[in-house]
């Protein structure tokens, strides 16, 4: 039996979750393999993708294995769980899910924020959208500052949300793209806003490294909106002042109701949400054991079943090509003779 543990790479240095899976590891008759995977904190489905690949490799190497017991260790909150439901159908057995406390759960604050839009042009589409959404303006509570043409030092703000969404130019953490291109949609909070959008910025290497880092940074960063091709469109960075800075690289038309549309709800929610609450809790995944009680059969996971030829003979491809060329030449010669006759 293979006891496979797939854990988020960000949890590599966190030992608190290991006690939770000790029973899965303690078996002298089982082959135990702990695999750390990137991308699990962005979508829990990445753990299943890595599990399928890892299980396929190990069951190929160890033909005596008959079953696979899978344990997935994920942060308590992830960016998305959309991929988990899709990839769960591909794993042919039960999955034990352990939610580690690497990312603390933040209680959602559903109260309307005090929104201030700094800068921008007259009749700015962003100012119109967010001032309409917060009327009547609350006298107290959390604050969201949307910066359109000037920059506020985020470290001087305490427990505040600063959104850098420049009317022109590029937000902090992004750099100019070598070539401007057009992208068809932006995805935020599960909603798709269709463009077209002229994309002139891309994530800087420094910020991309912080987002992709396997270790928890002192000021962590996470993607909160994506372009339709998977590139980051907005990134949230926690600040030392206790708040967060969101850089939004989504250009908008000077006028219109694009940001007021139903499809823009996800993007509006991301802009106004409290720091860290764009993450999705994974409590529902811990009930996955009730879905299937049986372990995954190794035969369903092997990429190359036993006894199957792993590759074609070296001469087969050249022979087939030669045969195809000969057939074409023969047909050409026959048609030429028929025409001459």
Describe this structure in words.
This protein is of the alpha/beta class. It folds into 2 domains: 2-105 and 282-300, no CATH class; 114-278, no CATH class. Helices cover 23% and strands 28% of the residues. The strands form 3 sheets. Strands 6-7-8-13-12-11-9-10 form an 8-stranded mixed beta sheet, with helices on one face. Strands 1, 2, 3, 5 and 15 form a 5-stranded mixed beta sheet that branches. A hairpin with a 4-residue loop joins strand 11 and strand 12. The radius of gyration is 27 Å and the shape is flat.
Count of DSSP-assigned helices: 7
Major pleated sheet: 8 strands, mixed
Rounded mean pLDDT score: 76
| Euclidean distance between termini CA atoms | 73 Å
Number of domains: 2
Q: SS-based structural class?
A: alpha/beta
Q: Name the strands of the widest sheet in spatial order.
A: 6-7-8-13-12-11-9-10
Which blocks of ≥5 consecutive residues have pLDDT under 50? 102-108, 304-312
Number of strands: 15
